[in-house]
Design brief:
The structure holds two protein chains of two kinds. Chain A has no helices and twelve strands. By secondary structure, chain A is mainly β. In chain A, strands 2, 5, 6, 10, 11 and 12 form a six-stranded mixed beta sheet that branches. A four-stranded antiparallel beta sheet of chain A has the order 3-9-8-7, with no helix packed on it. In chain A, strands 1-4 form a two-stranded antiparallel ribbon. Helices cover about 0% and strands about 50% of the residues of chain B. Chain B is built from no helices and eleven strands. Chain B has strands spanning about 5, 10-15, 20-25, 30-35, 45-50, 55, 65, 75-80, 85-95, 100, 105-110. The chains are: A mainly beta, B mainly beta. Chains A and B meet through strand 5 and strand 6 of A and strand 5, strand 9 and strand 10 of B.
Chain lengths: ~120, ~110
């Protein structure tokens, strides 16, 4: 079974400050991890993924995420937040032992960046 | 959103009616998915299809039906058996094991 948790419903940060959006996962095999962003009334946009390799993954719009196997986490980070980063962020996981490509999504974290 | 289209963007349904949501992709992806999103909640999988002429139920398939007659198309029908169909519906596609790409969504409202 695979599951993912986003413990914060909302994260507030001031523009220019670093941001972190948390994600933890549970899988029986190896995890394939993804971050998506959703703007109001829009579909999800892919930000970045971890499949294998370096634990620090860089993605779109200056975002990055760090895979931590011992803590089963994949937190999304950005060194300097922009007001335009305000959106809903979803973490997703797939277990390498699953034959299909079923992703399990977290409940989402709303990021609010204030000027 | 590029490569995956969903129509209509907004859809209104009277109680007791069946409605069909369209999803088309030109990315040549084998797999396609339908999700439901409710306000303030994550995505829940309704149906998925790994290959043409084959599809599987997801976590919340009751009251929904799908078909996959062509690789590029995966329409979703919301039947009158779906008790609370008002939601935002998202279609996605993916290559065999990579990330999923999402369409812009259809907002369904029951009047």
């Amino acid at each position: 079974a695979q599951s993912v948790a986003q413990p914060e419903d909302q994260v507030n940060v001031a523009e220019g400050n670093p941001l972190t959006v948390k994600c933890t996962y549970s899988v029986s095999g190896n995890p394939y991890l993804f971050w998506y962003v959703q703007y109001p009334n829009r579909g999800l946009q892919f930000l970045l993924k971890y499949i294998t390799g370096d634990n620090l993954v860089k993605g779109s719009y200056g975002f990055e995420a760090e895979f931590n196997k011992s803590q089963t986490s994949f937190h999304l980070k950005k060194p300097s937040a922009l007001v335009s980063d305000s959106a809903l962020y979803f973490c997703a996981v797939r277990d390498s032992r699953n034959a299909g490509n079923m992703l399990t999504f977290g409940g989402g974290t709303r990021l609010m960046v204030k000027p | 959103d590029g490569g995956i289209t969903q129509s209509p963007k907004y859809l209104f349904r009277k109680e007791g009616q069946n409605v069909t949501l369209s999803c088309e992709q030109n990315l040549n992806h084998d797999a396609m998915y339908w999700y439901r999103q409710d306000p303030g909640q994550g995505l829940r999988l309704i149906y998925y299809s790994q290959i043409v002429n084959d599809f599987q139920k997801g976590d919340i398939a009751e009251g929904y039906s799908v078909s996959r007659e062509k690789k590029e198309s995966f329409p979703l029908t919301v039947t009158s058996a779906q008790k609370n169909p008002t939601a935002f519906y998202l279609c996605a596609s993916s290559p065999s094991w990579n990330e999923q790409f999402f369409g812009p969504g259809t907002r369904l409202t029951v009047l």
